[in-house]
Amino acid sequence: MCDKIQNVDIHEGEWGTVGSVISWYFIHDGKEKVAKDIIEAIDEENKMVKFKVIGGDILEEYKSFSFTIHVETKGENNLVTWIIEYEKKNANVPDPHTYMEFILNMSKDIETHHLN
């Protein structure tokens, strides 16, 4: 579905439940990386899930990093909104533009997969 994600493992809990700990293995900027996340919130009625990064490469540059995915359905169309919240470790750390580009490209790959 998406060549940017190499593997996904669940360490604690069950898929799709709050408190579950998941590791994502992915390619970012041409390098293999890992992000260990915990699912902080799920709102099925509003089609929203929030993840907090608790380990891995992302935390080498950021004190905190979390993201929320929200899907809004209008007829046959779905609008996906990603919200990234982060705190840099210092002023020299760049804003996560490359992660935003990664997420955009991953979303496009998933859309292409579902349209085929």
Brief write-up:
With 116 residues, the chain is of the alpha+beta class. The chain contains one helix and six strands. The chain has a six-stranded antiparallel beta sheet with strand order 1-2-3-4-5-6, covered by helices on one side.
Quickly give the structural class.
Answer: alpha+beta
Assembly of the depicted chains: single chain
The CATH class, by name, is Alpha Beta
The profile of the biggest β sheet is: 6 strands, antiparallel
Q: What is the CATH third-level topology name?
A: Alpha-D-Glucose-1,6-Bisphosphate, Chain A, domain 4
Second rung of CATH, namely the architecture: 2-Layer Sandwich
Number of helical segments?
1
How much of the sequence lies in strands comes to: over 45%
Number of β-strand runs: 6
For the largest sheet, list the strands in their spatial order.
Answer: 1-2-3-4-5-6
Overall geometry? globular
Uncertain residue segments:
none
- Distance N terminus to C terminus? 11 Å
- Would you list the SSEs in sequence order as H and E? EEEEEEH
Number of domains: 1
Determine the CATH superfamily.
START domain
Rg calc: 15 Å
Measured as a percent range, the helix fraction is: 10-25%
Mean pLDDT: 90
What does this structure look like?
The chain is α+β, with helices and mostly antiparallel strands and about 120 residues long. It has one domain (about 5-115): 2-Layer Sandwich (Alpha-D-Glucose-1,6-Bisphosphate, Chain A, domain 4). Helix content is about 15%, strand content about 55%. The protein is built from one helix and six strands; from the N terminus they run E-E-E-E-E-E-H. Strands 1-2-3-4-5-6 form a six-stranded antiparallel sheet, covered by helices on one side. About 5% of the residues are buried. The mean pLDDT is about 90. This is Bet v I/Major latex protein domain-containing protein. InterPro entries: Bet_v_I/MLP, MLP-like_ligand-binding, START-like_dom_sf. It holds the Pfam family Bet_v_1.
